[in-house]
Amino acid sequence: MNPKKCCQEIxxxxxxxxxSHYASGQTVVADSAGNVIVGDITVEGNxxxxxxxxxxxxxxxxxxxxxxxxxxxxxxxxxxKVINTNLFVTVDLLTKPNPDSVHTxxxxxxxxxxxxxxxxxxxxxxxxxxxxxxERKRDLSRTTYxxxxxxxxxxxxxxxxxxxxxxxxxxxxxxxxxxxxxxxAQKTGITIGTSYSINxxxxxxxxxxxxxxxxxxxxxxxxxYTYVSLTRRNKYYTFHSVDLRxxxxxxxxxxxxxxxxxxxxxxxRQRYFQLTYTYSYDKRDNAQYALQGQTAGxxxxxxxxxxxxxxxxxxxxxxxxxxxxxxxxxxxxxNVRGRVSFPKxxxxxxxxxxxxxxxxxxxxxxxxxxxQDYALIKNELKYRLFAMQxxxxxxxxxxxxxxxxxxxxNTFADAGYVKNSYPEFSNTRLGNSTLFGAGxxxxxxxxxxxxxxxxxxxxxxxxxRFFFNLAREF
Length: 474
Prior knowledge:
The protein is mostly beta strands. The protein has helices at 3-25, 51-55, 68-83, 129-135, 253-258; strands at 35-44, 65-67, 88-97, 103-112, 116-124, 143-152, 160-168, 172-179, 188-199, 202-207, 210-214, 221-232, 238-251, 269-284, 293-303, 313-327, 330-342, 373-391, 402-419, 434-446, 450-459, 464-472.
């Protein structure tokens, strides 16, 4: 036998085997034009969640013809939409050849969260940890305790039942049920709920941009409200909601005397209907901790719908946030928001400025700047130290054995302005002036939307502080 010919045959055989090996491992099948034709789309791992809830988020459909690069991009966008339902710990979209050798199938592999949660409640009654630490001298009596129950995905349709019972500094009881889709088109949802709370220790006014409290053995404030909200999601990223609620609030004689403007004119009772419309656009890569995309929102609310209502106010609120990846682990985001309200003469309890939730200039966490109108801009540059997912096989519960963990260094600069038409009511020194704050910090992001923030700040008053915040974000 000719040795040269034998070697050629061996090389040819090896070439055929090598090609066969790579062909058997390919995950997409392209047609003659180089496009990928989508085949079957299947869902795996959804033990409770209905398949339709997941497919609602998918823009890709069977028989779509896409380039391989376009398919990859669209799969990543759809994966983000599925993970942003907050129903799953992990989501993977995988491709494989269909047996017909023409189509490419898509496998949606999910790992569900733990949906039924009963947690003990032990939290601070103050606006944030920093106010409690610096202003309230770490007084443990200013805490609430109780139980929180959350039953998510009750029927497998992303619905949620929530119950809260708190005691201690501010006793409170709440119950709410949300069903995101009540129609076959999966576009309309509903939430119903009610809340009842009482205060013996009450912030009765803001003075020199700090909350002042009245402590008593008697009930100084009692509040009840109930509401129904309808939501509409016509497109993937656009949401509309209409919220109708009825509120009832009473205060003690002491509160009415200490601050006659609490409910205006020394009144001790406030009853009203409130109607709120909210529009939101949310296209972020991750609702838990966004690094790319944008959000926008507009809210219009009318308090006092009937002649018999005790309040008559109107406010408009708008916000826009942009997240920009800069490459090589660098990210930037900017956030602009503002609020205007009418009339300018308002009850203290309805007068909202900067200092609550995330509506604040960082560096001013210890202050409440009351006012009828405000504007706020927040800018942040961050660097990713690491981002990983750790699978702990020794934990038998699948909803808890995959732990995502990421850390980001950040620097920030904020500015804000509050317009206070009646500064004499609060003796404000920060209202009607521009506020500046800047600093640097560390964000730690882990599972179930928990974000821990450690910041060192400098504000326009020259105050340097270390602030800590722990929250669940959506």
